[in-house]
Amino acid sequence: MRLIRLGAATAGVAMVEFALTLPFLLAVSLYGIETINLVVTTMRINQAATHIADNASRIGDISRLENQQIYESDISDLLLGAAHQTGAGLDLFGRGRVIISSLETVPGTEDGRNYIHWQRCKGRKVHASTYGNEGDGLGSPAIYSMGPADAPVSAFDHRDAVMFVEIAYDYRPLFSDMFVSDRTIRAHAAFNVRADRDLTQIYQRDENQPDTPETCDKHDSFDIVVA
User: Fold this and answer.
1) Cis peptide before 141 (omega within 30 of 0)
2) Residue 187: CA atoms inside 13 Å, Cβ hemisphere, count?
3) How far is CA 72 from CA 50, 215, 216, in A?
4) Distance of alpha carbon 25 from alpha carbon 138, whole angstroms
5) How does residue 127 score in pLDDT terms, banded at 50, 70 and 90?
6) 91: CB partners within 8 A, 6+ apart
């Protein structure tokens, strides 16, 4: 009789089914969370590249009497603003590298040759520019654009410059590498300068107390707490 009653009992069927499917449901849920986090992080890195390039194209002292001049402090403020904009959770400069390049036409030429006049960098990640370094294009080989082969950008006028921004960022998965492996997220963006700019150099606001340039031989972040 007890065996008959045991065979007819169904009170624990649902619990057993739930226990058997729980690992699968948990794995699918965690994979979905990890995938969404990767997509959102990639979107934020792309947005950061666009915002930095856009803001770099706008900086400079506005004057009706002369072309805009840009200063080392302008670039430092631009990068600091990007740190605040992306937030501490992303830690853009702690886990990544931002490279700003000024792409301009080679002085004295009319054949469309470009060169990278100057570069400024920020971030602890060791990553060289994918598309060129400061001074490239002045000698051999000549360059006529910057960027990926399917979407190159160029400066076309001696009064013009293109602010080209590259970001390389080390993505760290939420759940180790169980579902998504460690990887480097790369993004780039470019904007033409928005007004007539003095392209001769990056200036110092006070030559007696010069600001430290964010040159590409350094690999550092900001010594502040970013909200």
Assistant:
1) yes
2) 23
3) 20, 10, 13
4) 59
5) very high
6) none
Alpha helices, H only, 87-194? 92-95
Q: Is 37 left (phi over 0), alpha (psi -120 to 50) or beta?
A: alpha
Distance CA 106, CA 128 (A): 23
pTM (two decimals) = 0.87
Rounded to 5 degrees, what are φ and ψ at 151?
Answer: -150, 60
What is the share, in percent, of the chain residues with pLDDT greater than 70?
A: 84
Sign, CA torsion 101/103/104/110: positive
Give me the residue label for tokens 């000549």.
142
CA distance to 35, 38, 189, per residue, from 179 (Å): 8, 11, 29
